[in-house]
Amino acid sequence: MPTWTELQSYARSKYKLAEDDERSFRIIFGFEDGRSQIIDVQTFDAFNQQFIEFRSPVCKEDQMNPRTALLKNTKLPIGSLALTENGYYVLVHNASLKHLDLEEFELPLHVMAKIADSLENEFSAKDDL
């Protein structure tokens, strides 16, 4: 189980980080079809332990109705759709660092990128970059 510092160092060594600060970093995944997807990873404390959050933009609030978002949530294998205060749907997944290993970091990272990009393409037909 890595610490946040170790996890961030691992990400720095494996990926080119688009943003990188003490409590968060951003990875931009490129896909073969030319699309890309942003994944923000940040650490936070809850219940006397450290967690990480994966967050990826999907579409503007007016591009997906709330019922559709909730129905999509029932079918997602990982993460859930949430609405930000600035009116944007994001795909979010949280995990405790206490029991996390690097495989449990890599799997959600890659799966979230694919799911968020698919949803983004379906609802906004735009790309992150």
Q: Write the CATH fold name.
A: Yope Regulator, Chain: A
Roughly what is the average pLDDT, rounded to an integer? Answer: 93
By secondary-structure content and strand pairing, the structural class works out as alpha+beta
**Biggest sheet, strands in spatial order?**
1-2-3-4-6-5
Uncertain residue ranges: none
Largest sheet: 6 strands, antiparallel
Shape verdict: globular
Radius of gyration (Å): 15 Å
CATH architecture tag: 2-Layer Sandwich
What is the CA-CA span between the terminal residues? 33 Å
State the helicity in percent bands: 25-40%
Helical run tally: 3
Please explain how this structure is put together:
By secondary structure, the chain is α+β, with helices and mostly antiparallel strands. The chain has 3 helices and 6 strands, in the order αββββαββα. The protein has one domain: 2-Layer Sandwich (Yope Regulator, Chain: A), CATH 3.30.1460.10. The chain has helices spanning about 5-15, 65-75, 100-125; strands spanning about 15-20, 25-30, 35-45, 50-60, 80-85, 90-95. The chain has a 6-stranded antiparallel sheet. A hairpin with a 2-residue loop joins strand 1 (about 15-20) and strand 2 (about 25-30).
Brief sketch in words of this structure:
The chain is an alpha+beta fold. The chain has helices spanning 4-14, 66-73, 102-123; strands at 17-21, 24-30, 36-46, 49-60, 80-83, 88-96. The chain has a single domain (4-123), classed as Yope Regulator, Chain: A.
